[in-house]
Amino acid sequence: MAVEKTVTVLGSTGSVGTQTVELLQANPDRYRVVALVAGRNARLLAQQARALCAERAVVADPVAYPELRDALAGTGIEAACGPDAVVAAASLPAEWTMCAITGAAGLASTLAAIKHGKSVALANKEALVCAGEVMLRAVAAHGATLLPVDSEHNAIFQALADGNRASVDKIILTASGGPFRTASHAEMAAALPEAALRHPVWSMGAKISIDSATMMNKGLEVIEAARLFDLPSARIGVLIHPQSVVHGLVYYEDGSVLAQLGSPDMRVPIAHCLAWPRRIATNAPRLDLAAIGRLEFSEPDLDRFPALRLARDALQAGGGAPTILSAANEVAVAAFLERRLGFLDIAAVVADVLAAMGPTEADDLAAVLARDAEARRLSSIMCVKRLAKAA
Length: 391
Ligand SMILES: NC(=O)c1ccc[n+]([C@@H]2O[C@H](COP(=O)([O-])OP(=O)(O)OC[C@H]3O[C@@H](n4cnc5c(N)ncnc54)[C@H](OP(=O)(O)O)[C@@H]3O)[C@@H](O)[C@H]2O)c1
Hints:
By secondary structure, this protein is α/β, with parallel strands linked by helices. The chain is 48% helix and 15% strand.
């Protein structure tokens, strides 16, 4: 079989990245791997690069480089390190790039991949939230195709495939509700990272797991959907759906509702993006609706999950507000994971930073990076203040 696509995976050692690598390993004749990129996990990266016969493997953290270089010695696979090498790897010609680095750290490499004008599978929602206009302008200028990896956006992408975009009334993103779906305010106030990381449905990286617990993840996804599908906040609904098998729904003006269903398994949307516009087989469990029996849906509780409201407000405010929201949240989540902040303080810090920075613009990359840096600085200060207050 002739190779169908050359591919690069940014963030190959993470949750999305390893599932992408698994699909590539299962289809060695279809895909040829150009580059794999990780943060610092040199051991796993080297294993992946050898297994997939990648041309290049890159770690962002120079401290991890000697281990990577030694593990790849004699293989012919090029090893490199540092943030510039990450962007250089994303700039190598590949027909399909998975962008699965977490947070704004993935922005520069995602932009570099977009500049090929080929297919970009976007898992890194924070890049699109923090630099939406910049990214969408680059997509248009270079003729790239953004393929949504997030299961909800992938579902909407599939449900929009009949091409009648002008006839869409609204879309719905579903949310599992996370580990605190039924928790009291007091339980949430006392929650430790171990409990917040224990997602009832999805097994994911630490940052997105905490975002799911606060429902900031769904807020980021509302902004992501607004950018991807060019819809205002009012036409993007969110429903809590604990079974997580209906991932997204599109309501059309004739009363039809198209939904995409599947077992909650990221290999399904990743495979959809990888093979698009075709399909490939996965080992994901087949959906057994009779065994599930009941599908439940309810409105989210914005009092217990204020992050969702904050994200909608930031989308509405526009300018630099989504950049600030995402950057402040990254810092607050890191502080919570390091036990320097309470669970409910995450959204409170984000709200404080948004209020302190007020209306701002972020219409080019320099402005985005400036808003991002200032929001991180303020968020660090607010985290310290909240810790001092709690002591
Ligand atoms: N996990 C999911 O099911 C899921 C679903 C939908 C969307 N997403 C989105 O996909 C993205 C990745 O999520 P994840 O759960 O896969 O995260 P993760 O497990 O934490 O993996 C993050 C990946 O990025 C790498 N990385 C971190 N910092 C880096 C840097 N500065 N430069 C280069 N690489 C860096 C990590 O390398 P090391 O391993 O070496 O640290 C790892 O390979 C996030 O934006 C998330 O919101 C995830």
